[in-house]
């Protein structure tokens, strides 16, 4: 009986680590360092706050070919940050939908390999408020482009997946327009930076 249980667990473990379809929930951060002074007019640059990482949740749906280890899928992320200094507050919000391509160099009880994404849909916004909490500028880019390259690793056991991902994400906001007309120019923001994610999911 004990041998049967060990065999059954071994089969389940192998199956979960070599799942055909994975659904994963992630929590991550993107260490962007945009030039916030470029979208701030009054008071020069001394009051512009120090940037903080974008943080938020994401969801992945991935199809992996078990023996080959090659996979693909789709990712949705919702990130943002709030940074303040001397009564000036910046709030940023971004959503990103991207295509995923990954390759599992190791794909047994553990998995390890490169992963890349290409952004196909974005919704972005950044605004700043004065000391009276009045929104003085509300900017949205005309267009956004993004891609990422990274390394993922994790463990698959009994259908459950625990993992992590680190890498670099290129994220460019082009021609921001201010609906409040405080900023009369159309600056660009480079929101690129290193990123990290922790993953929890399920594979079948």
Attribute tags:
204 residues, mainly beta, Porin, 8-stranded antiparallel beta barrel, 10 strands, 64% strand
Structure description:
This protein is mainly β and 204 residues long. It has a single domain, classed as Porin, CATH 2.40.160.20. Helices cover 8% and strands 64% of the residues. The protein contains one helix and ten strands. It has one helix spanning 2-17, and strands at residues 21-30, 54-64, 70-85, 88-103, 106-107, 110-129, 135-157, 160-178, 189-190, 193-203. Strands 1-2-3-4-6-7-8-10 form an eight-stranded antiparallel barrel. A hairpin with a 2-residue loop joins strand 3 and strand 4 (88-103). The longest helix has 16 residues, at 2-17. The two termini are 26 Å apart. Mean pLDDT is 88; it is low at 4-16.
How far from one another are the termini?
26 Å
CATH architecture: Beta Barrel
**Helix content class:** under 10%
> Biggest β-sheet: count, sense, barrel?
8 strands, antiparallel, barrel
Helix tally equals: 1
Order of helices and strands: HEEEEEEEEEE
Strand content: over 45%
- Radius of gyration, taken over Cα atoms and rounded to an integer in Å: 21 Å
Structural class designation:
mainly beta
Shape: elongated
Number of domains: 1
Q: Give me the count of strands.
A: 10
Identify the CATH class: Mainly Beta
Summed over residues and divided by their number, the pLDDT gives a mean of 88
At the third CATH level, what is the topology name?
Porin
Low-confidence stretches: 4-16
Strand order of the largest sheet: 1-2-3-4-6-7-8-10
């Amino acid at each position: 009986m004990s041998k049967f249980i060990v065999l059954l667990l071994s089969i389940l473990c192998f199956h979960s680590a070599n799942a055909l379809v994975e659904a994963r929930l992630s929590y991550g951060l993107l260490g962007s360092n945009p030039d916030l002074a470029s979208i701030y007019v009054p008071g020069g640059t001394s009051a512009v706050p120090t940037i903080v990482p974008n943080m938020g949740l994401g969801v992945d749906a991935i199809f992996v070919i078990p023996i080959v280890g090659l996979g693909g899928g789709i990712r949705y992320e919702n990130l943002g940050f709030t940074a303040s200094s001397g009564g000036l507050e910046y709030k940023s919000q971004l959503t990103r939908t991207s295509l995923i391509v990954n390759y599992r160099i190791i794909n047994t009880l553990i998995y390890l390999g490169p992963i890349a994404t290409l952004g196909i849909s974005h919704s972005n916004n950044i605004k700043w408020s004065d000391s009276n909490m009045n929104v003085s500028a509300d900017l949205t880019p005309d267009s956004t482009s993004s891609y990422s390259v990274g390394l993922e690793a994790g463990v698959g056991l009994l259908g459950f997946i625990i993992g992590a991902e680190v890498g670099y994400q290129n994220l460019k906001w082009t021609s921001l327009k201010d609906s409040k007309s405080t900023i009369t120019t159309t600056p660009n923001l480079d929101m690129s930076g290193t990123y990290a994610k922790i993953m929890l999911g399920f594979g079948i």
